[in-house]
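Worked example

This section walks through a single chain of length 262. The input is the sequence exactly as stored; nothing has been trimmed or padded.
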Amino acid sequence: MSAKTRITALIADDEEAPREQLRAALQRQWPELQIVAASENGVDAWDDALAHEPQLCFLDIRMPGLSGLEVARRLAELAEPPQVVFVTAYGDHALQAFEAGAIDYLMKPVDEARLAQCLAKLRARLAAPSAAPGQSQGPDLQALLQQLLPQAKPRQARPIQASLGREIKLIAPEEVIYFESDNRYTRVIHQGGEALIRTPLKELLTQLDEAQFWQVHRSVLVNSRCIASALRIDENSMVITLRGREEKLPVSRQFQGLFKGQ
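Given that input, the structure is written out below as tokens.
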């Protein structure tokens, strides 16, 4: 099997021992599987998933930053969501819901026989014809996540603190137009100008109100109130325009579903 046709997977667990145990078990049972990322927390898992677009994601439920359930919810909203398998410890409150919803999960430490059953189901799903949009997860993952995740409340985000020489400038989140990754920094484009901060974009995602700030690209987070329009360039390309500004921001394929019209 060529590299281009190999199935790809992401593992996410904040504990090294179970993360490496799962990696070793996967390599024994599915040698052709390409593990493209082994993320150490939920924030990295989300960012690694955008970078590598794996077909399978094995997510520990309890991780700092974003839980496995929160990462799964974000993944399920992508244009091409991966198959998700939750990895959890005995006694997790989600187990009963997983069993009722026929959702794939593995207990820690991972049992080889149980993993073999899980991989057989994943292979069958991947070999099956593509499902209709919104049904690609097989079991009703969206319904389960709606049941398990509390209703998101708008976050009262703190001001963005940007260093300007000896001055620390405080920028209210509602004044931000968009954030953009810039090597080791994040550019903050706001109503009063532009600044650089050291906080990575992926960490800002957990601090801001996601109903107001939309991620439209792995490297761009935009204030939805500042978006004027979305323009499709061709089948795969889309850009957004901003109110009162000339620049156009790219919308990656995975996030184009944000703009459907009504």
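What to look for: The longest helix spans residues 112-127.
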